From TrEMBL:
<keyword id="KW-0256">Endoplasmic reticulum</keyword>
<feature type="transmembrane region" description="Helical">
    <location>
        <begin position="21"/>
        <end position="47"/>
    </location>
</feature>
<keyword id="KW-0472">Membrane</keyword>
<dbReference type="InterPro" id="IPR001128">
    <property type="entry name" value="Cyt_P450"/>
</dbReference>
<keyword id="KW-0492">Microsome</keyword>
<comment type="similarity">
    <text>Belongs to the cytochrome P450 family.</text>
</comment>
<keyword id="KW-0479">Metal-binding</keyword>
<keyword id="KW-0812">Transmembrane</keyword>
<dbReference type="InterPro" id="IPR002402">
    <property type="entry name" value="Cyt_P450_E_grp-II"/>
</dbReference>
<dbReference type="InterPro" id="IPR050705">
    <property type="entry name" value="Cytochrome_P450_3A"/>
</dbReference>
<dbReference type="GO" id="GO:0020037">
    <property type="term" value="F:heme binding"/>
</dbReference>
<dbReference type="GO" id="GO:0016712">
    <property type="term" value="F:oxidoreductase activity, acting on paired donors, with incorporation or reduction of molecular oxygen, reduced flavin or flavoprotein as one donor, and incorporation of one atom of oxygen"/>
</dbReference>
<dbReference type="GO" id="GO:0005789">
    <property type="term" value="C:endoplasmic reticulum membrane"/>
</dbReference>
<comment type="function">
    <text>Cytochromes P450 are a group of heme-thiolate monooxygenases. In liver microsomes, this enzyme is involved in an NADPH-dependent electron transport pathway. It oxidizes a variety of structurally unrelated compounds, including steroids, fatty acids, and xenobiotics.</text>
</comment>
<dbReference type="Pfam" id="PF00067">
    <property type="entry name" value="p450"/>
</dbReference>
<dbReference type="GO" id="GO:0005506">
    <property type="term" value="F:iron ion binding"/>
</dbReference>
<keyword id="KW-0349">Heme</keyword>
Amino acid sequence: MFEVELVLPLKKKKKHAEMGFYFSTETWTLLVAFITLAVVYVCWPFATFKKMGVPGPTPIPFLGTMLAYKKGFTVFDENCFKKYGKTWGIFDGRQPVLCITDPAMIKTVLIKECYSLFTNRRNFRLNGELYDAVSIAEDDQWRRIRSVLSPSFTSGRLKEMFSIMKHHSANLLGSMKKKADKDEPLEMKEFFGPYSMDVVTSTAFSVDIDSLNNPSDPFVTNIKKMLKFDLFNPVFLIIGLSDHEILSQAMIFLFAGYETSSSSLSFLAYNLAMNPHIMKRLQEEVDSTFPNKGPVEYQALMEMEYLDGVINESLRLYPIAPRLERVAKATVEINGLVIPKDMVVMVPTWTLHRDPDLWPEPEENCIGMRFALVMMRLALVEILQRYSFSVCKETEIPLEMDIQGLLMPKRPIQLKLEARS
């Protein structure tokens, strides 16, 4: 009796196990249909560029061509440009992305049809509370916010902010002098980062955190204080925006102003150190514009032509945004190429700026560019009045770029400052 009871459960378990491995015909049919539909759904967009007659790397299911990003956007874009020419197609997952480097097409997308067909950037829906920032808002909301913000960056407004910038450029010079006097290499971002942060927070938030002289104070401990900005400050006296929209623009100015300006200044210092003959000619313009290390004045600073050319050339070589994107709001034909609705159109600026067939580089436009350029000009001129940048044993030559979104070196740029005789 005991043996019978033991054998029966074993037979039952074996029968259940066999049932687990064998499905009915209907179940198999549904499973195959599901897998087929999934594959069709994932791979359906992959025929987009073949229909358009646009070449490009072969995508794989689910990932598209994103595996090639492991070496960074700039390397991937350069390789595609060399292999496929001025126009090619890639896939971010299922999303087709049309890459263009033809100046005429770029001008149509970024300028001529910007307000009609290519107003919006790609939205990954991961913006959190910054959903209404000027760099993320779409269509009519973007137009309204930009039109309200634009007067904050006129020459008159920038001139009003100039004395605030000079206060922080003096702090920058004093901080750099301490290192220069000891003949120690300077990590450029350690100085230009706090300088940019101090200028942005002072002009936009009316708060002087003085991060140059207090580097040990983390930004996080000041975030609440910085958000308590004065709505009647000249920059934020912007009628027509909600409180949330004002807050979003403030945070975008803060983050964008800090990273872009500090990185641009770091690359600029590196380029001058690597090209001392260019730096010498620039210093001659500085000395003739402001003799005897005289105080820097706004109007004369803005009229320095060689300085303008040096900054533009550095931005060409090291564009902080290695890619620009827009999304087509409707199907449109540009230079004989039909671009379907919802297509992401991408301009690989890093690759574009290194195309030997193009000169000068295509026009780019940023609402805060004038503000950033004044801040950069001022810092550079006041440094070059007294010092020269030079490479040292700690300087990495050539620079290796990081693979993250914004363009920045993988390791900090380190240079020395040599006092001018």
